[in-house]
Amino acid sequence: MVRITLPDNSVREFEATTTTGAEVAASIGAGLAKAAVAIEVNGVAQDLSEPIADNAKVNIATAKTELGLDTLRHTLAAQVLALAVKELFPAAKLAIGPTIDTGCYYDIEFPTALSSDDLPKLEERMRDIIKTGRAVVRELWEPEQLITHFEATGDSYKSLIIAEAVEKGQTIGGKVSAYRQIGSSVAGKEFIDLCRGPHAPSLDKITLAFTLTNLAGAYWKGDSQNQQLTRIYCVAFASQKELDAYLTMREEAEKRDHRKLGRELELFHLQEEAPGQPFWHPKGWSIFLELEAYIRQNLRRYNYREVNTPKLVSKGLYEQSGHWQNYREDLFLTCDDVMQPIVEPAAHEKAQATTLGSMAKGIDSLGIYSLKPMNCPCHVQVFRQGTKSYRDLPLRMSEFGMCMRNEAHGALHGLLRVTSLTQDDAHIFCTPEQMESEIIALCNLIDEVYEPLGFKDYSVKLATRPEKRVGDDSLWDAAEKALADACAKIGIPLTLAPGDGAFYGPKLEYHLKDAIGRTWQCGTVQVDFNLPIRMGALYTNEAGERVPCVMIHRAILGTLERFIGILIEQYEGKFPTWLAPVQAMVIPITDAQNDYAEQVRQTLMDAPITTATGGLRVEVDTASERMQKKILFAQQKKIPYMLVVGKKEAEDGTVAIRLRDGTDLGAKPLAWLLDRLKTEVLTRADTPTTSAQAA
RNA sequence: GCUGCUGUAGCUCAGUGGUAGAGCGCGUCAUUGGUAAUGACGAGGUCGGCAGUUCAAUCCUGCCCAGCAGCACCA
User: Where does A522-636 have alpha helices with state H?
Assistant: First the structure.
């Protein structure tokens, strides 16, 4: 007899000791039996066909549950998409087909390139396969036999996975599970897929709404040294409604793409002569300046001192720091004259073309310089001027330094990944004893900076020692512990990112989510015991000894370029007044009010309101258009305040105020408006709303 | 860097082996309008770059550059 506890804590008894999930579901009701796709037994997912242990707590999964949806997506990938590919492209080699939070994908090696034109055909075949409603049965195989099977079908990647599972001891009593689709046929054999499961017991359970969206390249096991496979993405949801909602969401996300808005709002542009380097237009640059000022104001509260250091620095400094050894490929190198031949042209003919530009790296005899890829080595040089004692620490050195990185070409992406980047960078030189309180202060500062910008939800990862690193492991132990302890102390939940640390130290990574749900690393806090030793950042301790300090590398916004890109998407271009490139647009109703409109603009521009650009940013729309059109235009430019001036306002010395969201505040004296703008700008209020009307 | 795709007017895009089109935007003129698009006319393109095939290339082929969707990378 088997006793089974249901989610409502009721207990049912079954005679047979081999009672399965399917039987439990059937005992509850025919509807549930039909909808069931898998079952959770004591928190572990298993097939409906497997027997359930005595005294188990179970939860039956349907398309409406997380596990059920995941199981159906999994079956869709492994039994439907995979089979469709095998039927249409017999020579294709299946690799892996996991689920993701919007559906699933399958990585496959194709002998000839698949094109996106093939997707509709594949999708149609998938629907045909589902219509057969064939049963999918779990089987346990001897690893060698299953490998033999996959060698015969050409799916050598499956063999590799089996071999690895055996090696790692991830087997079920020495066997591996596979799923057979009863009645299917590929090259005369029933289709079998290696899988841990669970799977839906039959294809007619797959009631998902799905569509194949796109193709992409992806490396086998995520390693760029390996074979590149073709990844087929499939979005799949429990209902057509959810699928439509997801597709609509993607379209909406496209509308707030910072590259599109950046052009429409005249913030910046990119062109091929300067890949990855934004040309900032006046309106975009004003955002840049405001953010910089915002950060400066915050740093002041935490006693930072700002510096500025050279852009073009000899490679020697980077050899000392270790960046040369780790990032040489990504440095922009130059010397006094790259076109000057290195070898005497007369020596031999080929030498004519042999310039530094062509021979480039590894030539020590010439003074080779690198555009600085980061600020830390330069900051150490500032620190080293003069003798420092423990009384000088902690020393917090900040810089908005522009760095250049020759990023992999495929990595560039609008403002989110650029070649020339401006970090809100700083290095804290401190003693080991000060380290923890400095990290805690930093975590607080970061939160205080993010919060007013609307980023309340972010995740923090602890990136630990990578394989390629410098320094003793004992130092790494201490550094990783310092970060973990500090976070524990102030209650920041951490997830681990093993091996993702910098070559000189572990780091906390702050990840923010953008409008399309992609996450971007922005803030970072890195504890470094190694560069101070390598580069001689020493201080005299209380005992009079010269010892290396601890260096904490940190950035809050990360790079201003990336952060502005994220902000554009976050706000959909509707910046709060303090950040808005144009804060108010004066709209004269007829030409007769142009002079008054200009007076209004001048009054606002001259108002004693401090902004990063020296005062309020106001424009006048004197186009020979109807007022309605000018309002529409200002709205399209997402300008927070529209100040309509007609004959009446000109006579009364007022402006008729209309907000970006359509709210009409009516005619108000200029002094009233100035008061309101001043409050809004100085407090960096989120956005102009009617609720602020009391101001 | 890798896989697939794209590059035609300021923007969005159509099109053809015989040197190009639309809508919006832009300019001029008329209109002087009270809170989401006034009308007429006009200008604007080495069809990403370099080679090749051809009597002829924006179109076909190759190479390069840039961009897009991912992957890898991200000090």
Answer: 530-535, 560-571, 594-606, 627-636
> Quick one: pLDDT at residue A366?
61
Residues 6 or more apart from A207 whose CB is under 8 A from it? Answer: A63, A72, A238
Nearest nucleotide over every DNA/RNA strand to the A373 CA, judged by C1': B75
Rounded to the nearest angstrom, the gap between the alpha carbon of residue A13 and the centroid of all alpha carbons in its chain is 49
For range A6-30, the mean pLDDT: 91
Strand B, CB < 7 A, residues 487-546 of A: 500, 502-503, 516, 518, 521, 524, 526
Using DSSP, state whether A695 is helix, strand or coil. Answer: coil
Measure CA A365 to chain center: 42
Assess whether A461 (CB) lies less than 7 A from strand B: no
Phi, psi of A333 (to 5 degrees): -105, 150
Nearest C-alpha neighbor of A85 from the set A184, A228, A222, A223: A184
- How many whole angstroms separate alpha carbon A580 and alpha carbon A276? 24
Q: Alpha-carbon distance A52 to A38, whole Å? A: 12
Q: In whole angstroms, give the CA distance from residue A230 to residue A106.
A: 8
Q: HSE of A106 in the Cβ direction (CA atoms, 13 Å)?
A: 28
**For residues A90 and A190, is the Cβ–Cβ distance under 8 A?**
no
Least confident window among A27-41, A108-122, A381-395, A646-660: A108-122
Handedness of CA A20, A24, A26, A30 (dihedral sign): negative
> What is the distance between the alpha carbons of residues A132 and A442, in angstroms, rounded to a whole number?
60
Residue A467: which residues within 8 A CB-CB, separation 6 or more? A499
Nucleotides of B under 7 A from a protein CB: 1-5, 7, 11-12, 29-38, 65-75
Length of chain A: 695
Establish whether the CB of A275 is closer than 7 Å to any nucleic acid atom in strand B.
Answer: yes
Which helix (H) or strand (E) element contains residue A300? helix A282-301
Q: What does pLDDT average to over chain A?
A: 92
DSSP A79: I
The residue ranges of DSSP E strands in A201-319, in sequence order, are 209-219, 228-237, 268-269, 279-280, 305-306, 312-314
Question: What is the DSSP code (8-state) at residue A80?
Answer: I
Q: Which two tokens stand for residue A357?
A: 């530009």
Tell me the pLDDT band of A347, cut-offs 50, 70 and 90. very low
Q: What are the pLDDT digits (tens) for A292-307?
A: 999 999 999 999 999 9
Looking at residue A518, what is its pLDDT?
65
Catalytic positions of A are: 376, 405, 423, 425, 427, 507, 553
Instruction: Band the pLDDT of A181: cuts 50, 70, 90.
Output: very high
The closest alpha carbon to A220, from A320, A365, A347, A93, belongs to A93
Strand B atom within 7 Å of A414 CB? yes
Residue A263 token pair = 């052009």
Contact assessment for residue A529 and residue A471, using Cβ atoms and an 8 Å cutoff: yes
Predicted complex ipTM: 0.95
Residue A543, SS3?
Answer: coil
Q: Report the predicted TM-score, pTM, of the whole model to 2 decimal places.
A: 0.92
What are the DSSP E strand ranges found in A309-449?
Answer: 312-314, 333-334, 369-371, 395-399, 402-404, 420-430
**Cα–Cα distance, A81 to A90 (Å, whole number):** 13
3-state secondary structure A619-672: EECCCCCCHHHHHHHHHHCCCCEEEEECHHHHHHCEEEEEECCCCEEEEEEHHH
Is cis: bond before A394, omega within 30 of 0? Answer: yes
Helix (H, G, I), strand (E, B) or coil at A511: strand
